[in-house]
Specification:
By secondary structure, this protein is of the alpha/beta class. Helices cover 30% and strands 25% of the residues. The strands form six sheets. The protein has a four-stranded mixed beta sheet. The model has no long low-confidence stretch (mean pLDDT 95). It binds uridine-diphosphate-N-acetylglucosamine (UD1).
């Protein structure tokens, strides 16, 4: 398995281009199931998770062509679901990536039937899909759980309904937004997630002919239409990639410009970091990051649904807080068991105590490089942030997690003076 080796302690200086959001691109690709015409997506990142989703869609009969034409062809994907040849999402593909469950709603809406493997647990907790299933039942689908599969049927089509989510779920909101676009009559999604990736999906659906009101709010009204058509849509910038490089710049006391992204997507992050002594400012084509002071200050952070501080940046800000003056209380409210990076950061000299859903981080003057192991995507990148700031060498094992969510990570960091290299398997 590949490893990443970092010789830390060098301030990041330079420009880092930010790609399209993985978490927007995945549901947008799934939206292609809703129409027999071609959906062209631009600014799609080149990542393992995107390839996994493409494989799943191909298996349903979708033609997926990456890089058809043009200068930025590697980031353009054309998807055509002229005929859906299978409405089953098999275990082998779903277990690789939970976002596969997003095909459930669109397949039932388009074909009247879907069988999707239950995703099962993952490194950051049990992550149930009950909200997806209950919502689909409200739209009139009959759902059975059989042999590890969700078996949903709506032979006469879905009917609009009022769905009030008891808890905010990004995936359930996306699944039902897509399904409701082809249901008969009006659907209200109440207590819907408001993440920018959902707004991006809703805007693409509107471009495909969907009728959606309340975009960007926690109450979405969808008036179903009999069919959707093709469209061309550009994926929004990745706010988690943006936030990750903000933390990396701050951790190394560097100064970087992030291009192709937007400050408003990371407003909660910028606000928190200001208290820590980091300036994140808008620039013409993105944003800039630098520290106000020589030392960072500890700040408290609580993860929350958007527009709060994202759970997908919790591990990275914890890495930053390990070297801040004073203490920082980091509370995770979205996922259980999302502190797997803590023992690894501790191996680098961090002082962190976990009490239930909170971690108390007492800053140390500096981290020391060490061999570490990553358990999930965001935990692994938090070790990269820590390794960039640490004295000496850090070797990160299980790099495949990083490849799921960060395009050309080593290249982007090396372009800003980081001493980072990938050790290929067997090297
Ligand atoms: C998405 C993101 C993920 C991010 C998360 C929260 C994608 C592909 N992934 O994941 O990176 O960390 O949002 O911002 O966009 N829940 C239930 N029942 C359900 C669904 C969810 O109890 O049916 C719970 C989950 O276990 C979790 C919470 O709700 O505790 C939020 O999960 P959700 O917003 O659904 O996350 P995902 O869509 O899986």
């Amino acid at each position: 398995m590949d490893k990443i080796c970092i010789k830390g302690g060098v301030p990041l200086e330079g420009v880092i281009p930010i790609g399209g959001a993985k978490n927007a691109a995945l549901p947008l690709m799934v939206a292609s199931l809703l129409t027999s015409e071609t959906l062209t997506l631009m600014n799609v990142p080149v990542l393992a998770d995107i390839a996994t989703m493409a494989n799943l869609l191909v298996q349903h009969g979708v033609s997926v062509i990456r890089g058809a034409e043009g200068a930025d062809s590697g980031h353009v994907v054309e998807l055509s679901a002229r005929h859906i040849t299978s409405s089953t999402a098999p275990y082998d593909l779903v277990r690789k990536m939970r976002a596969s469950v997003l095909v459930l709603g669109p397949l039932v809406a388009r074909c009247g039937r879907a069988r999707v493997s239950l995703p099962g647990g993952c490194a950051i907790g049990p992550r149930p899909v009950d909200l997806h299933i209950k919502g689909l039942q409200r739209l009139g689908a009959e759902v059975e759980l059989r042999e590890g599969y969700i078996d949903a049927r709506a032979p006469k089509g879905l009917r609009g309904a009022e769905i009030a989510f008891p808890a905010v779920s990004v995936g359930a909101t996306e699944n039902l937004l897509m399904a409701a676009s082809l249901a008969e009559g009006e659907t209200q999604l109440i207590n819907a997630a408001r993440e920018p990736e959902i707004t991006d999906l809703a805007e693409c659906l509107v471009a495909m002919g969907a009728r959606i009101d309340g975009i960007g709010t926690d109450r979405l009204s969808i008036l179903g239409v009999p069919r959707l058509h093709g469209a061309t849509h550009s994926v929004i910038p990745d706010r988690i990639e943006t936030g990750t490089y903000i933390m990396a710049a701050a951790a190394t006391n560097g100064e970087v410009r992030l291009t192709g992204t937007r400050l408003d997507l990371v407003a909660a992050v910028a606000r928190i970091l200001e208290g820590a002594g980091v300036e994140v400012a808008a620039a013409a084509d993105g944003l800039t990051v630098r520290r106000y002071a020589e030392r960072l200050e500890g700040v408290d952070v609580m993860t929350e649904p958007y527009p709060g501080f994202p759970t997908d940046l919790q591990a990275q800000i914890m890495a930053l807080m390990t070297i801040a003056d004073g203490a920082s209380m980091i509370t995770e409210t979205i996922f259980e068991n999302r502190f797997m990076h803590v023992p690894e950061l501790a191996r680098m000299g961090a002082n962190i105590n976990v009490h239930g859903a909170s971690a108390l981080v007492r800053g140390v003057p500096r981290l020391m490089g060490a061999p570490v192991m990553a358990t999930d995507l965001r935990a692994s990148v938090s070790l990269v942030v820590a390794g960039l700031a640490a004295a000496g060498e850090t070797v990160i094992n299980r790099v495949y997690h990083l490849d799921r969510g960060y395009e050309r990570l080593e290249e982007k960091l090396a372009g800003c003076n980081a001493r980072i290299e990938r050790l290929r398997d067997g090297a």
